[in-house]
Amino acid sequence: MPQSWTQPPTVAVVGGGLAGLAAGCALASAGMKVTLFERRPYLGGRASSYQHPGTGEVIDNCQHVLLGCCTNLIDFYERTGVAGSIRWFERMTFLEPGGRASEIGPSSLPAPLHTTPAFLRASCLEVADKVAIARAMMALAPTTPRDTGESFLGWLNRHGQTVRAIERFWKPVLVSALNEEVDRVSVPYAAQVMRESFLKSAEAGRMGVPTVPLTDLYSAAGNYIRERQGDVQFRTSAESFRAELSHVKLVVGEKEETFDYAVFALPFDSLERILPDSSASQPLRDALARFETSPITGIHLWFDRIISDLDHAVLLDRTIQWMFHKSKLQNRNSNGHGSYVELVVSASKTLVDKSKQEIVDLAVSELREFFPAARDANLLKSTVIKEVHATYSPRPGIEAERPRPETVWPRVFLAGDWTATGWPATMEGAVRSGYLAAQSLARVAGQKDATFLVPNLPATGFMRLFG
Ligand SMILES: Cc1cc2nc3c(=O)[nH]c(=O)nc-3n(C[C@H](O)[C@H](O)[C@H](O)COP(=O)(O)OP(=O)(O)OC[C@H]3O[C@@H](n4cnc5c(N)ncnc54)[C@H](O)[C@@H]3O)c2cc1C
Known about the structure:
The chain is of the alpha/beta class.
């Protein structure tokens, strides 16, 4: 404990998603007394799971995956003791309708050439597509381009991409990573995804999938806070706050509580609702008003027999984009009968107004094109989870609106996947935001050298030339 403290500072963390949990864990580890308030009865926020009333199954709000480049998320898993619940995959299978598979994975060649042999073998792309992709990758390797207002689709067209390269490579990778159409994505966001996941190193590009339901994964962070003299209060909604010179007053439920500091780790629309009605809030309110969101739809299907040997696959040329074989990934159905799969559609604007039945019918008929075994399988039950405001839209210009953790109120800090982390709206972005807010708060509270953010993975091979 720093000598300047007679008592550990008290900190209210509002929001039990990954941003709030990461901030809470970091501050608790630094000796502060953390009270975390979460509106729902469970932790994880958008990355959570729950017992679904219609099917009686525990389902994830949506499948969540990470990549090897998510160094802060991995640090958070290690800190909370759940890193062993992530299964890592080196290869991704791209499936065409009809079932032909192309596997993309690393070789022993140095970065950025490590995936070249797999690309050369990939049957879903023609030679002209591969040459075009290689040219674009060479343009992205040295540095991340600046945001000039151009969309990434404009950039791809300027860099001579074929229609098939865009449809079968750039879109599948970027729409799922950024949850937005490529004609609405800013160039630096797209470039960062490609540099981190395909170019920098083989380790950065591997994909991690949780083997347990998401709330099991993230409940460990609540225990971490409690074990360090902290408290986690569920079903408790922050209604408003007042920042004074020496403390922060927070209205939670019916009560007003006083803390030395507060971290608001809320989605931007929830934050907007609790900001003080004063001129000091106006610049932040104006910035929040410029954020837009994009939807994700998860389609959960239970079949009476096994429909594929694959753990997951990218699905090309159709509405459904990814298949995650949940019964295999989470080791459910230990008697070996049946498949539980989740199909994910990112930037799913075309599905928002469709009924559950229309979406299930479309998904099952498309799935049967990719997996012949699904044609004879009976659908036992199904559900559709539409997250209409899943993540903020990473469109050109938005980076400038993302606020830093420090606010006009010296004792109030912001976190959340939409704040200024340099990362898109991902679990890694959320954890980074929590660590950044905790770092700023700890420094204001007297821990001048507090550092919670961990560095990026180093570039390897020839990518070391570019850093
Ligand atoms: C469908 C879907 C699929 C996704 N897939 C992936 C993926 O594969 N990989 C990936 O990296 N990311 C993915 N993401 C993004 C990822 O889930 C988010 O970026 C991340 O979880 C955001 O965390 P957060 O803490 O910033 O916000 P949230 O998770 O939204 O947490 C905010 C919390 O605040 C609580 N809250 C709100 N208002 C109040 C209040 N007034 N008082 C108290 N509590 C309040 C909410 O209940 C919530 O728990 C996906 C998101 C969605 C929606």
